[in-house]
Amino acid sequence: MDRALARVKARGLRGVVAALVVAAACGGCEPSAPPRPNVVLIVVDTLRADHLGAYGYDKPTSPHLDALAREGVRFTGARAASSWTLPSVTSMMSGLYPAAHGAERNDRVISERVAVMPEAFRDAGYLTAGFSANPAFVTPLQGFGRGFDEFSVLHGAVATGKRGGNTAPSDPWFRSMVEVSDADEVTTRALTWIAGFDSAPAPYFLYLHYFDPHAGYFPPAEYATRFGVAADDPLRGEAQWPLLLAPKAPDNPADLATLIKLYDAEVAFTDDQIGVLVNGIRARSQRPTFFVILADHGEEFGEHGGLQHGRTLFDELIRVPLIIAGPGIAPRVVEAPVSLVGLWATLADLTGVSGPAKSDGPSWRSLIAGKPPVGLPNVFADLEARFPKDLQIHRRAIIAAKRKLTIKPDRSANLYDLQNDPTEQQDVRTLEPNLEETLRAFIKAHDTIGFSARAKQPPAKIEFTPERRERLKALGYLR
């Protein structure tokens, strides 16, 4: 038995002893409060909202997520705080926008001064575990292990080539590649962890980070075939990499269509594995459980000329699925725009754990309860250069009701009417010049507040001392 599981069992035993002491002292007290719920937080890397059936997609990618959406709350206006993993997941975990927490470049580490959600659950007596299939960014190396009894980064062997087959970067500098751990391994590890202490009285907080929809797109063969990609299509192999790494979307529409089919097949495989996970948890535990499903960002397929993510703040990259199902939640659709920075505050409200001392996003509890969206703040998205010489299209975005303003690095802007132009093709600044200035002022205030907060709790930077390099090699992060 590994030490992490031993700690879990020890905490569970302490919970039993404490419960017996309370029961003996209480005698004829009132019935105890209902058991605290488990929380299963599922992040699917690179999952577009509009490629799920629950969000109107016409391909059979997501029957299990669609079922959870029908039994819980589905948010149609949720936005990630950035369009790539590190700043976005840090925002989910901290309740702060990237401008405030500062984990915006590949080599940044979440500041120890920034509180994160798993710490609140651990301090409230929850058993905590995380299993991440993103080997480059969602790792203890960059600060994501805090608050967890166990946090495992799942990946296969170091890849022999720079970029070959189903591989992903294993370090923030993309100097080493590893084989990707697929969704079935994430699900298996999660269910194995749960089975190890299922009789313990303490609730658990489980974070799962699935990676399959992320490029490259190498779904299991039967899924690729199911979505119409021929067995001998070269894009089912390494031939897709030159297209994915090009500076623009492929000129051949057939190639782009094939990439989308492979992406959809990855989504379908992940959905099936989430179905296995949910059914497995419900079969094993009598404790009520909240299931929260979302994405760190989406993916572009030529809508604005490019592929992949991390360079723009268009909605194909920051509009993400958000589904919450669990005890006391009635089926409902919430259309109001919300930012994922409100996740911790919301889960605190739903479970009774401590919320963030300061959150850039309010709890969604009133929206979940069906109350009108009154007084909601504007939604922001931040994007700084990941590398010193990185080029990106956008730097900031703000969504206010049905309008969205995007700011470029040179401070020029575009204004979009999301009600009538949801794909952001037509700039309407000349039609609403006063609105542009108003939204620019909001962004300026957002930056001022964020940068002030960052100055008090700046992110660390990963340094390469000889000792750290050897330690990272031993962990598989470096060659």
Report what the structure shows.
By secondary structure, the protein is α/β, with parallel strands linked by helices. Helices cover 34% and strands 17% of the residues. It has 14 helices and 21 strands. It has helices at residues 3-26, 63-71, 85-94, 98-101, 117-123, 183-195, 221-226, 240-244, 253-284, 315-318, 343-351, 365-368, 433-456, 466-475; strands at 38-44, 73-75, 78-79, 108-109, 127-132, 150-153, 155-158, 167-169, 177-180, 204-210, 289-294, 300-301, 307-308, 322-325, 332-334, 338-339, 379-382, 396-400, 403-407, 413-417, 460-461. The strands form six sheets. The chain has an eight-stranded mixed beta sheet with strand order 6-5-10-1-11-14-2-15, sandwiched between helices. A four-stranded antiparallel beta sheet has the order 17-18-19-20, with helices on one face. The two termini are 29 Å apart. Residues 12-30 and 475-479 have low confidence and may be disordered.
